[in-house]
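quick one, 268 residues, struct below
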Amino acid sequence: MTETDPRRPSRRLRGGLTLRAMVPNAITAAALCVGLTGIRFAIARDFEQAVQLVILAGVLDGIDGRAARLLNAQSRFGAELDSLADSISFGVAPALIIYLWTLQSLPSVGWFAALAFAICCVLRLARFNARIDSENQPHKSAGFLTGVPAPVGAGLAFLPMYLWMASGHHEIFAAPILVAIWLALIAFLMISSVPTLSWGKLRPRRNIRLEMIAFAGLLVAALVTEPWLTLVVICAAYLLLIPVGLVSYSRIRRPREARAAKDSGAPL
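---
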């Protein structure tokens, strides 16, 4: 049969979604299922497994976008599915896991903190979808993100649990009021307008690329041998990079604003 032969089996599904486009969407669906399964393990009081599943959902979330670009299978359907899955895997699931872990001992305050985190995650993703076709995104055009991304926010929200598990379940890290304050802080960072560094912005110099490869290998080894302590270090490093992002963006923003004012003829 030739390429134009009408008898040739179509690679496009009846609804218009190609088989090639199904791959990243299937990964997204898998991430959603993994995140939801984390809630099941939290109900069974297996919090280590619950946290690991949300982290795995984050890994899958990072893979699906790259798979879509690699296969040239980006679609609006995929973008909407990804946001819906993220709102559950990185908003609802972490909020419920942390609530079942310690916040339920503060029924009102703890539940409001969990609600604030889940709602802020959804609002962040809604803001992202609303701006997806907008050209006026100063942070994005400068190579920065606006606020803390949803998967990173979920990882940061679990920091008290990392410390709790790394210390052998020390009760101070499970103090409900401290965890509620921390959860509210991360919720604020997700919907804030704070410019944060994106992966595309981090470009190591050529003379340290081999060292970076070695560091990545050691990081994976550390995650396998001492996962919770390593995750604490990763969270601390990310939090320290937030002021770096603020300073870096301020250095870029001033010349950009000056050029824009000059082009528009406005007085500086």
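The CA atoms of residues 15 and 77 lie 12 Å apart.
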